[in-house]
Write a structure and sequence with these properties.
The structure is a single chain. This protein is of the alpha+beta class. 33% of the residues lie in helices and 29% in strands. It has a single domain (2-60), classed as Alpha-Beta Plaits. It is built from 2 helices and 3 strands; from the N terminus they run E-H-E-E-H. The chain has a 3-stranded antiparallel sheet with strand order 1-3-2, with helices on one face. It is globular.
């Protein structure tokens, strides 16, 4: 299992965190997603992670990288 971490913008509440988790978990190979609301930190665990695809999905969800 590998890990990728991002700092994203616009994470304001647990609802935002849920949106990020649900959106990223739809991608193949994603096993878990951790979101820290106060810092905007997103950590993704899984196999065959593509940083570019994850970043693009975060942007699509409305949470671009900081």
């Amino acid at each position: 299992m590998t890990q990728e971490s991002f700092t994203v913008q616009k994470v304001k509440c647990d609802g935002c965190a849920d949106t990020i988790r649900e959106g990223l978990l739809k991608l193949p190979g994603i096993e878990s997603v951790e979101v820290d609301v106060p810092t905007g930190s997103v950590t993704v665990h899984g196999s065959e992670l593509s940083r570019e695809k994850l970043a693009a999905k975060l942007t699509t969800l409305g949470y671009p990288q900081a």
